[in-house]
Amino acid sequence: xxRYLNELLKMDxxxxxxxxxxxRQVGKTTLAAQILEEEGGGHYFSWDRRTDRKKILNAExxxxxxxxxxxxxxxxxxxxxxxxxxYDRHKDRLRFLIR
Length: 99
Description:
By secondary structure, the protein is α/β, with parallel strands linked by helices. Helix content is 41%, strand content 17%.
């Protein structure tokens, strides 16, 4: 992924959920990590890690205003309705980047 996308994604994150897709090994995770670093931190959760999966399903989000990166969320069969509900509930405090 090109670095010029960082600024565009950050602008979009300010007002909506952002979804990053593409084939394997093109830099999606690297792009998410760069955005977290440039924004001064955030939280990365992977559906593939059992501890993260439990936090995701229980909506154990940090209390501060921050960016949440959700990796491999598409593996959850009900992810679309679930993430819409989480976004609607927390959009004033959390910015969601779905990878």
